[in-house]
Specification:
By secondary structure, the protein is mainly α. It has a single domain, classed as Rhopdopsin 7-helix transmembrane proteins, CATH 1.20.1070.10. The chain is 73% helix and 0% strand. It has eleven helices and no strands. Helix 2 runs parallel beside helix 10, helix 2 crosses helix 11 and helix 4 packs antiparallel against helix 9. The longest helix has 41 residues. It comes from Anabas testudineus. Keywords: Cell membrane, G-protein coupled receptor, Membrane, Receptor, Transducer, Transmembrane, Transmembrane helix.
Length: 330
Amino acid sequence: VDLRLCTLEETELCFPQVNTSCKKHVRSHSEAMIIYILLFSNSLLTVVLNLLVIISISHFRQLHTPTNLLLLSLAVSDLFVGLLVMPFRILLKESCWILGDLMCVLYYFLAFITVCASVVNMVLISVDRYVAICDPLHYPTKVTKKRAQLCVLLCWLYSVFYSFFLLYENLKQPGRYNSCYGQCVINVVIHVDLVMSFVIPITSIVVLYLRVFVVAVLQARSMRSHITAVKLQSSATVTVKKSELKAARTLGVIVTVFLMCYCPYYCVALSGYYIIISSSAYAFIVFLIFLNSCLNPVIYAFFYPWFRKSVKLIVTLEILQPNSCRANVL
C-alpha cells in the first residue's frame, strides 16, 4: 500500500527526481482535448487569415496606401501571436513548464510585445479612419505613406520598450517569482498594464467612434434639411452618409470585440484572485485574448471588397503570373 501511494505521489509531480518540483494539475482527457483543440484551431486560423492579409497588401500595388500599411502592421503582430505565442500555450502540459526560467520570461516578453503592438495598431487604424471621415479634405496631406510608416515604426518600438519596462525585474532574474521547480510565473504591475494596455486604448477608440457617429448623424440631418437641393448635391450627401455609417458600424464592432476579449482578463486580475496557469478558467481567458488576433483580420479586412478579390487571386495562384501585382483589386 505504501508503494502504491508513493507511486501515485510521484506521478503527480512535474519532475519526480527533484524535491522542489511542482505538482501537476491533472485534467480529464476530454477537458484537455477540448482546450488543445481550441488553441490549435485558433492558432492555425489566426496564421492563415493574417497571412492572407499580409500577402494581399504586400503584393498588390493598388493596396499600398497609408491605411493598408496600418492594416499590414496589425496583421504582422497578430500573425506572431498565432505563429509563436499560441503554440507555446499548447506546450504547457499539466501546469509543468519544461523549457526553463529564461524561456518562460522570453515567452511572456514576446507575448506582451505582440499583443501590445496589436492593440496600438488598432488605435492607429481608428485615428486614421477618424481623420478620413471627419476631415476628408485634408486627409491626403495629413496622412501620407511616410507618416504611416513612421507610426508603424513607433508602434513597434513602443511595444518593445513597454514590454521591457513591464517585465524588467523578471528579465533581470528569471524564475524569481516561481514557488516550485517547473513553474512559469511572472510579476507585473497590473494597474500600469491595465491603464496602458486597456483603459487608454479603449478610451481612444470609443472617443473616436463617438465622434464618427456624431458626424454621421449631422450628415443625416443635413441631408434631410437640404432635401430640395440639386440632385447632384443630394447624391453626394447620401454617399458621404453611407461611408460614415459603415465606418461607424466597423468601429462599433471593434469596440465590442475588444471588450469581449480583454475584459475577462483584467476583471479577474483586478479582483485579486489567483488563477493557476493551467486551470480551465485561465485557459479560457487566454483563449479570448488570442481570439482577438484571429478576429482582427475578419473585422478590418473582410469588410473590404478588395480583400475578397485578393484572396481569390491568391487561392487560384493567379498572383504567380507576371505583372499580377498590377491587377485591379479595387
